[in-house]
Amino acid sequence: MIPPDNLCRWIIDVSQKVAKQKKEIPVVSAILEVSFDKRGGLVFYENGYYWKIVSLSSNLVKKYNQILFHSEYYAINKIKSKVNKLYLNDYYLISNLEPCLFCYSTLILYRIKTIYFFLYRDKGISSIDIYELSMNRKKNKSKKILNHHIPLIHLEQYSEKQKKIFQNFFQELRNEKSPKVFLNL
Ligand SMILES: [Zn+2]
Predict the structure, then answer these.
(1) What's the gap in Å between 64 CA and the centre of ligand 1?
(2) Buried b vs exposed e over 49-81: b needs ≥16 C-beta within 10 Å?
């Protein structure tokens, strides 16, 4: 199952708004409930399914001075304050960036149903590396790394647009930090 196009574009728009504020890295995550019924709240429809946003967060590391307040982790915290369940196995997560290892582990522990992301991380060990390694070990019947293999799906069609937003964000930060140099030739 693939999330509606207008929902993914909406998440990209949110990340663009976060980027414009120039405070936090514009990573955005949404947790969704998918059903056949239209219920209240922010709902996106495609192919007979209604995708309702039950939790939305951006990165809040600077705001709260908390290194763990990544968008995925904070979105989980928000839904946990509303839903009295130990596991979140009925919910889907969409993030505009591939989750880091910390968030990926958190999402696995909460047994999120499926993780979708738009852009691969370009540094370090990523969640997709762990996922693929574990799947290969499972295939070879050697010891698995993960107990649960939650689908981790790259939505490549949004990759370029999202990449530009991150690139512009970091470029603008660099421009602001570097002293302005005027050449009088
Ligand atoms: Zn993270």
Answers:
(1) 15
(2) ebbbbbbbbbbbbeeeeeeebbbbbbbbebbee
pLDDT tens by residue, 77-86 = 999 988 999 9
CA–CA distance, 150 with 109 (Å, rounded to integer): 10
Separation of CA 6 and ligand 1 centre (Å): 24
- Map residue 177 onto helix, strand or coil: helix
3 Cα to the center of ligand 1, angstroms: 21
The pLDDT value given to residue 132: 80
| Span from the CA of 59 to the centroid of ligand 1 (angstroms) | 9
- Cα of 31 vs centre of ligand 1, distance in Å, is 15
Nearest in space to 73 (alpha carbons), one of 106, 100, 101: 106
List the end-to-end C-alpha distance of the chain, in Å, as a whole number.
61
Query: pTM of the entire structure?
Result: 0.88
**β-bridge partners, 119:** 97
Ligand 1 center from residue 72 Cα (angstroms): 6
